[in-house]
Specification:
single chain, about 140 residues, alpha+beta, hypothetical protein PF0899 fold, three-stranded mixed β-sheet, 4 helices, about 30% helix, about 25% strand, binds zinc ion
Length: about 140
């Protein structure tokens, strides 16, 4: 979907942080409800960094668990607390909006809830360095 555009943005950001264009590690947090193909993103990011002359950068993709808050009763709960079969989890991965069809408040049963966390993409950490193995600091 938007993996290549996203990878491009992450690469540009990392390069701007490490002005010398030496990036050794990038940690990206991806919301559970973000319809991003991790493999494609990781591949795209590596390809873009390499085409920019940055080699050997470690790419770490972490999941940020989704958290919901009920608009009716104020209860909050996590995606991992929700009982869903694999097919539904898959559906929600590709169409995050579908979460409103399958998830309801565990306290009052309302489907009127908001997604507090787990929808975004965040660059959690950029480590600058020469990326060469065995380098001493
Ligand atoms: Zn509720």
């Amino acid at each position: 979907m938007h993996e290549w555009a996203l990878a491009e943005a992450i690469a540009r950001y990392a390069e701007s942080v490490c002005s010398s264009r030496r990036v050794s590690k990038i940690v990206v947090k991806l919301g559970t409800l973000q319809a991003i193909d991790r493999e494609v993103l990781s591949f795209a990011l590596n390809a873009i960094l390499e085409s920019d002359g940055i080699r050997g950068a470690e790419i770490v993709l972490e999941d940020e668990e989704a958290v919901f808050r009920c608009r009716r009763c104020g209860a909050t709960w996590r995606y991992s607390d929700v009982e869903l079969d694999e097919a539904l989890r898959e559906a929600i991965h590709f169409l995050p909006e579908a979460v409103h069809s399958f998830v309801r408040c565990p306290r009052c049963g309302s489907r009127d809830f908001e997604v507090v966390k787990g929808r975004g993409v965040e660059v959690a950490e950029v480590v600058c360095g020469d990326g060469s193995e065995g380098g001493s600091h």
